[in-house]
């Protein structure tokens, strides 16, 4: 809300608090949506301290590593109608597919113009990239890619492997994803090596499915590697279940400090680990604040 990082922040729930600092903001309610890792690392100080059961719930819920590899291809090499690929082995656990017109997608993550420049979605995150959160990789960056993607004996044309998605006006995207232990292993590689391993994984899939399938490496154009563990304001993927921790999320969903502080985010949802879960908790937190403010106004008007 304030366009400032939520690190080194002090939140005081006191009536006698006065500050001359320009960064000081006085408000009636706070909806806290930062990731668990920010709270676990005590990047935000609460005065008075959070209730013991709330802090225990924060510290007890795990949040593991997560990494995404966005791959752009010049042609749709995977089978038509396939939107999700799951792999039981390999450098990444799953791939999500997407094809869209370039001309109607000026801000896409892997837009032809954005991939080598500072525009596009990840251009907005350059100020947080000092720890290598986002790394761009082009075809020319990867040594040995041309050798790996030698054409097969088949005369199959990469540009016509899926007519319904072909043409220079289309963006062909795969988003590779991994979390927890798989992500930890993937993060051990530099960006170029990780992209090369992802392409080799996809090549193995397509090579085994059909002798006439085009290899991913022969269609590859560019990539972005996003290690969410290295993002200084995220430091992980999403929360995970904890043994004996059924009550932790309901505890985090309850307002504290006389209903002045409300936590939201996927970790406070009993069905966590998704954007939908986070959205639902945002609605819940906003509703709680509105109800509390309404009760306060009614009390003061008496």
Task: Kindly list the characteristics that best describe this protein.
26% helix; 302 residues; six-stranded antiparallel β-sheet; alpha+beta; 10 strands; single chain; elongated; 8 helices
In short:
The protein contains 8 helices and 10 strands.
Give a written overview of the molecule.
This protein has 302 residues and is an alpha+beta fold. It has 8 helices and 10 strands. It has helices spanning 36-40, 52-60, 145-148, 180-186, 191-209, 216-219, 248-252, 275-301, and strands spanning 9-12, 30-32, 44-47, 66-73, 84-86, 94-101, 134-138, 170-179, 220-227, 261-263. A 6-stranded antiparallel beta sheet has the order 5-6-8-4-9-7. It has a two-stranded parallel sheet with strand order 1-3. It is elongated, with a radius of gyration of 24 Å. Residues 104-109, 111-130 and 150-165 have low confidence and may be disordered.
Give the strand line-up of the largest sheet. Answer: 5-6-8-4-9-7
Most strands sheet: 6 strands, antiparallel
- State the shape: elongated
Spell out the helices and strands N to C: EEHEHEEEEHEHHHEHEH
Overall residue-averaged pLDDT value:
79
Separation, N- and C-terminal Cα atoms: 33 Å
Relative strand content = 15-25%
- Low-confidence regions: 104-109, 111-130, 150-165
Secondary structure: number of strands: 10
How many helices? The count is 8
Structural class: alpha+beta
How much is the radius of gyration in Å? 24 Å
Helix share, percent: 25-40%
């Amino acid at each position: 809300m304030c366009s400032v990082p939520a690190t080194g922040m002090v939140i005081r729930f006191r009536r006698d608090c006065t500050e001359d600092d320009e960064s000081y903001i006085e408000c009636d309610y706070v909806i806290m949506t930062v990731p668990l890792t920010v709270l676990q690392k005590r990047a935000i100080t609460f005065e008075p301290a959070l209730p013991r059961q709330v802090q225990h719930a924060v510290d007890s819920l795990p949040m593991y590593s997560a990494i995404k590899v966005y791959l752009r291809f010049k042609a749709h090499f995977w089978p038509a109608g396939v939107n999700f690929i799951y792999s039981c082995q390999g450098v990444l656990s799953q791939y999500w597919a997407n094809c869209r017109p370039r001309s109607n997608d000026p801000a896409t993550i892997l837009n032809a113009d954005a991939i080598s420049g500072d525009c596009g979605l990840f251009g907005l995150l350059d100020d947080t990239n000092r720890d290598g959160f986002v790394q761009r990789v082009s075809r020319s960056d990867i040594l040995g890619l041309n050798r790996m993607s030698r054409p097969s004996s088949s005369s199959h044309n990469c540009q016509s492997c899926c007519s319904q998605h072909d043409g220079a006006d289309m963006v062909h995207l795969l988003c590779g994803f991994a979390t927890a232990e798989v992500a930890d292993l993937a993060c051990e590689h530099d960006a170029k090596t990780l992209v090369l391993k992802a392409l080799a994984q996809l090549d193995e899939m397509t090579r085994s499915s059909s002798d006439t399938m085009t290899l991913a490496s022969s269609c590859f154009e560019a990539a972005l590697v996003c290690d969410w563990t290295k993002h200084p304001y995220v430091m992980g993927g999403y929360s995970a279940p904890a043994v004996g921790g059924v009550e932790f999320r309901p505890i985090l969903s309850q307002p504290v400090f006389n209903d002045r502080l409300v936590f939201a985010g996927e970790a406070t949802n009993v069905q966590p680990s998704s954007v939908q879960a986070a959205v639902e908790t945002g609605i819940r937190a906003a509703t709680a604040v509105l109800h509390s403010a309404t009760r306060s106004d009614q009390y003061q008007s008496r």
